[in-house]
Amino acid sequence: MDGGLRIGVLGGVVAERDGVAVDLGGRRQRAVLALLVLGRGAVLTTDRLIGVVWPDEPPPKPQTALQAYVSHLRRLLQPDVPARARTGLIVSRPAGYALQLPPDAVDAWRFERAVADAAAALGEDPGRARSRAEQALSWWRGEPYAEYPGAPWAEAERARLGELHAGARETLLAARLAVEAPAGLIGELSELAVQAPLREQRWRLLATALYRADRQAEALGALRRARDTLRDELGLDPSPALRRLEADILQQNLAPHVRPATELSQPAPAGTGSFGAEVVGARRRVHGRDRELARLREAVAAGRPVLLSGPAGAGKTALLEALTDSAVWGRCPEADGAPPLLPWAEALRGVPGAEAVPELAPLLSDEPGTADADPYRLRRAVAAFLAAQPPPGPLVFDDLHWADRATLDLLVHVAAHAGVPLVAAYRPEAPPAQLTAALARLARLHAEHLRLGPLDPEAVAAIVRDTAPSAPVGIIVRRSDGNPFYAVELARLLGAGEDADAVPAGVSDVVRHRVALLPGPAPTVLKVAAVAGRDLDLDLLVATSGPDEEAVLDAVDAGLLAGLLDADGGRLRFAHALTQEALYAQVTPVRRARWHALIARELQRRGGADPASLAWHYGRAGAGFAGPAADAAAEAARLAEHRGAYADAAVLWRQAATAATTAGRPVAERVARLLTWCGSLVRQGAHAEADAVRAEAIGLARQTGDVRLLARAITAWAVPSLWMHRPYLRRDPAIVAEIEALLAGQALDDEHRCRLLCALISETEDAGPGETAARRALGRDAEALADRLGDPELVGLAAAARLRLTYTGEPLEERERLAARLLATGHELVGRQASAQVAAARGDLAALDAAIAAVEELAERRQLGAGRLTALATRGLQHSLAGRFTDAAASYGELGRAMISAGAHHGEALAFLCRLCLHEASGQDGPALEAQLPRLYEALPAMTREPHAYLLVAAGRTAEARGVWAPERDVPDDFLAQVWHALRITTAVALGAPEAARRSAAVLAPHADQLCGAVTGSMTLAPVAQYLGDAEVLLGRPLEAAEHYRNAARVATRTGAGHYARRARAALDRLESAAP
């Protein structure tokens, strides 16, 4: 083993050998090494490695590519070892590969061991603990696996190492606190607590340091702050250790720190002032509460008492913190045994001069028993002092629902007699009697009452951006119901890559705690209700929870009082969706399935149940109910399609198909379910998943020997669509042969033959120029059959198939005719898409905008994912024509992400081509595009050949361009043909290849009055005439070139594309200048 090799993952993935950095190659090759480090000597299967390195689509021979990466890594990490002997580091096993290195060779392994050593030594040897913790922290270069943000395979390890890093910092400070003067650590501990306020160890260390520095009041303040934070964020009490520390400080039982002699004479370092000031300075931003904050400040300025109410997590404390930096705080503790009037003691210590007033001594003294003074005299003394010596800011009392009687009595008295601004916050759910009485007395003083409701979606979105910018905003807006605490917890969870339906641990803990406090059978009844759904049906709940109706009603009352349920206008439901989800997750799987079955049967017995609800419950009732689940899901899917809810229908068809298989339904029925599911996926643009579903249907149909069933399976995605059904230029020879055999036979009727003809057109999109005429004949035959049968669905299907054949070689009028046929037969989305393509190619901006607005409206109304993708692409094209290149790039970036999310083929590659067209217009982003090429080439070589040569030419690297360009290769006659030919002409002009330019110009010539590539509806280059002019210049025909350039200028001017018009005129000027 090479002892000089060191690998680092605490930061970026790096390596060095004998102190010299090793170039580990590209991102994917480094990912292979990173995964092997994660394996820690265990064998990682090749399937696992391939799935991570190529998460979207592996190259044609992924095993070979992976083996090449491993071979390169072995050579880089062991350059002095003969090739055949490089097998002891990255070891080959029958199932995959493993990394064999000593424990000290990887920084993360060393780091973990040092952190554990430090923690183990802390109790007996603080000096060693400090040394090992400092050593561990010195190896931390930054976020582990930093170049793979958001990668699911790295998230768990990144979180684990991050937790170790946080623990190491705490261990180091604990070790220092054991041997150093505490005053010198308070500032650092305060900062640490603010950075991670839910880590109780940091509060414990801070409070201990403050106590040992003879700052007992601030130590208690720190612990109260910790408790408030835990309650507001999680709804939990502090841990027993933190509660014991608070009790020890209150009772003066905390063991004193044995300080070095030098400490007694040293002043506290600068910048370690009161803890409260530091925390207030680090308060969180408040979103969506501008109106409430303005009213709060107005009331405070007017001197009126203010009551602020809202449920747990509504953001009361955050709003109070935003009020002013000069507020004087009194926090009401939840813990039993806290002395009375503790919030007032905290508040008065924040008012200058209070400690000099003898009458206030009972409040401010730490001596036991001094708070037993005459309550009346004490109330008068406090009010008189505050009236004579107003505090520096408003008196702010938080968590008033936990206040003791004496605190409330004094608060009401001060509000009535002191004339100072006062704000108090509380939870309105089930207030204790003493709070209810105090609120009534404050109301008689005309206290202003502000109630915090749910945040609006914009405010929740702002919280998500602050907390975890990568988290899905829409999901969090829906699931949080406007509750800031839930929004933060969801953002943290989903921003870390967890499943979109997961319940944050903090929320689950809060709900579990609150439900556990409910009486009798209430927790069980509420869990049954959670299984039934967010809205409560009392009759259903009684029928499924047992015969005791009074017990069920008592449980519902308890849920209402606890704020877990809401009764709004006669509608009974869980107060928050996450409350229901958290309760649902707490039910064991066996019990959950049984309750789902009971609920489904009861709904069906009562009649008139929503099919989607039946499908939901039967689908979760276990395999024994798969048959009813399949029927209910299919009925619900048909109803969803009838209502235009196609995204919902796609989910339901998936459920119907899966349940039919589980129930062992006949093959014909299972194939039918798969086909409807496949069609719904195509409408959503999820072509990759549709491909897999179709393959399953074909496999089942082949087993039966039924040619009609096989034909139906092969044509599973034969729904009108202009998107790629299959991976780009990848023909499945077996499917093509099967279609041709079926068409050659006599067993099929005209309907099946029409569908198969359309399927064959889709399956042969990789055809070369020699097959174009035959494919167009297929399209004509399909349209003729559809017309003869008079079936609108088949007419639309044939029209969409013919549209795939007319991107070149046909006039725009033919595409316009086919678009009209689609609209006339009710295929509105595809018809509008085709109309937008025609308008874009012509440069008819008004028609383009009208068509794409209709697409957007349809996509929104009918939940059509494919329509949304079309709209994103076309909006990018519009921005590009107008010269808004930054906006266009943003649209194309969103398009790529949306396609990947939807499961469409080649989202990254299509976005790349759109940005390539932007580069051709603006000259921007060339290096970034070139950097993408290697990754795209591995998956889609046919889609990168012309772009690669073009980008090299654009960068002035003509020699390299000659090495990669292959002008003899046929250009596919597909939707990208115009783009390919334009790029080929540009490269041919730069490299002096007139014959290649001539061939491409001949293909583009019939489209001379169009914008090049705009017929895709997704991207555009300059007018076709621009490239025809460039070709004519190369061919030595300047007069013809000049006419093309004039035409290009006219087209560009008509479309408002000033940059293209200037380019055409500049080319014309060059010609005229060169003329003799």
TrEMBL record:
Keyword Disulfide bond appears in the UniProt entry: no
Q: Known SUPFAM superfamilies for this protein?
A: C-terminal effector domain of the bipartite response regulators (SSF46894), P-loop containing nucleoside triphosphate hydrolases (SSF52540), TPR-like (SSF48452)
Any idea where the OmpR/PhoB-type domain is? 1-101
Q: Give the source's domain of life in one word.
A: Bacteria
Please list every transmembrane segment annotated in the UniProt record, as residue ranges: none
Q: Which GO terms describe its molecular function?
A: DNA binding
Q: Which UniProt keywords apply?
A: DNA-binding, Transcription, Transcription regulation
**Gene Ontology biological process terms from the UniProt entry:** phosphorelay signal transduction system; regulation of DNA-templated transcription
InterPro entries per UniProt:
AAA_16 (IPR041664), AfsR-DnrI-RedD_regulator (IPR051677), BTAD (IPR005158), OmpR/PhoB-type_DNA-bd (IPR001867), P-loop_NTPase (IPR027417), Sig_transdc_resp-reg_C-effctor (IPR016032), TPR-like_helical_dom_sf (IPR011990), WH-like_DNA-bd_sf (IPR036388)
The entry's DNA-binding region feature spans 1-101
PANTHER family in UniProt: TRANSCRIPTIONAL REGULATOR REDD, TRANSCRIPTIONAL REGULATOR REDD-RELATED
Name the family. Answer: Belongs to the AfsR/DnrI/RedD regulatory family.
What protein is this chain from?
Answer: AAA family ATPase
Source organism: Dactylosporangium aurantiacum
